[in-house]
Design goal:
- By secondary structure, the chain is an alpha/beta fold.
- It contains seven helices and ten strands.
- The chain has a five-stranded parallel sheet with strand order 5-2-1-7-8. A three-stranded mixed sheet has the order 4-3-6, with no helix packed on it.
- β3 and β4 form a beta hairpin.
Length: 200
Amino acid sequence: MITALYLAHLNPVTKAHVEIIEELKKDADVVKVMPVVFKDGENEINSKSFPFNFKTRRKMLESVFGDSIQITDDYAFFAPFKKYMPPLLSPKSWQLRKQILRGVEGEYFSYTGDKAEGYMLKIYRLKPKVGERKSLSAASVKEKLYDAALGKKSSWKEDVPENIAKVIEDNWETIEKFADLEDMTTRVAGMKFPKEGWSK
């Protein structure tokens, strides 16, 4: 049995993400999709860069794929996040690898559209296949969502499947909450982390 591991922000899930997952389903028996989660104890930390919580992102994925894929929160970082640094030398970063491989039996590979990320996945022996980066990014879709919440003209619905647009509309208060706020994230070793919970 071959399992494809897809680790991504998925915040929100876009047409590009759906395309990638459809491709992975052709190459693997099981597709394990892991939206990244940042936690402080039991509480998930969300921010302007990571507005939608895991539950909402799972709903987005289920609205398109039903139960044809596995959706887990195994790609979870627990505060203080600085304990995951430096990668490779930190025991926490190897613990994360164990979480990612939870329940995986037989052969597996991971997918990324990012060369630098592919290098990291290779170091952690997660057998990456590096695909071509899609032109549509979740970051650009997020900006369009925030524009819409601030009353500007926006074409965000063109970038997400119809079912996902419905989930986003049902959670519009999340977009309104973060639209006008400063982005409280920090970039470390090429990865974004929420500032809250970085060094408790």
